[in-house]
Amino acid sequence: MSRIAEVLAALREERQNLLAEVSRIDRAIAALEDAAGTGPPATVATKYPKDALGRTPGPYSMFTVCEAAATYLASAGEPKTTREIAAALRAGGIRTTSEHFTDTVGKMLRKSASDFGIRHTSDRKRWFVKR
User: Rounded distance, CA 57 to CA 63, Å?
Assistant: First the structure.
């Protein structure tokens, strides 16, 4: 491979990484604007631009489970069960290969929720974002 081809390949890879990061930031901004009730109303197609393959990713497609759960809970405004959170994350495009995604979400929340401001209700059946 020539030096030019190597540089081009490296630049293309860097561009893809940056596009993914910009897309993640755009989705986070849109989700926060939705939660705050600010910003112009947008359709899914304009709020979440298509990726390099022409797919429209969901709002949680580039988030970790806890990042997506925190964003979802902030926008929901009321405590949600693990099952409700898992369903919303799946509907929002989070990427997973888990056959038991609800269990995965529960384990991740129990392990790392406090790092994202997520807390249990007093009955420990639902989750919410501490404001």
Answer: 11
